[in-house]
Amino acid sequence: MSKPQFVYVSYIETSPEKLLEALTSSEFTRQYWFGAEIRSDWNVGSPFALLLDGEITDSGEILEADPPRRLSYSFKHQKYEELRGEPISRVVFTIEPFGSLVRLTVLHDGFVEGGKYLGAVSNGWPAILSGLKSLLERGKVLAIPRAALNKGFDAK
C-alpha cells in the first residue's frame, strides 16, 4: 500500500527562473504565502525555515537543488502542538518549461496514515499556490483568507 501524499500540478505563465525565484525569495513569499518569509541559502544540506509573524512555523533541510528545474527540502511543522508530533515530511518542486508556460508539480510526502498533517497541507498548498500563480501572471495575489491554511485540522 502506498503512503499518503499530496500532489498539485499547475501551469503558470512565467519562466522557470522567475518561478524558482518566487519559491525561494521572501520578497515573493511574503506576498502569496500569507506574509510568510522563507529562509535558506538553498544549498544541499543547508537549513530551511518558514517564518510567519516572526515565528518559525516549519523548518527542515535542503535535500536537492537543481535550479531552475528541481528543489526539495525536508519539512517539520513547529507551530501547532497537534501537528508537532507528525514525522518529518518532504516537499519536492519540479519545474518544467512548456513554451511560454511552466508546469509546476508540488509533491509533499512522508505523512503517516491517519495523521492530521496531510489534511492541513491539502488545504494550505492550494491556497498558497493559487496566490503564487496569480502573483506571477497578474502581478497581484488573490484575497484568500489566512484561515484557508488551517482548514483540515483544528488549530488553537
Automatic annotation (TrEMBL):
Record protein name field: ATPase
CDD domains per the UniProt record, alphabetical: SRPBCC_CalC_Aha1-like_GntR-HTH
Pfam families: AHSA1
Species lineage: Bacteria, Pseudomonadati, Pseudomonadota, Alphaproteobacteria, Hyphomicrobiales
Top-level taxon of the source organism: Bacteria
InterPro entries, alphabetized: ASHA1/2-like_C, START-like_dom_sf
Organism: Bradyrhizobium niftali
Domain Activator of Hsp90 ATPase homologue 1/2-like C-terminal: residue ranges: 14-137
Family membership: Belongs to the AHA1 family.
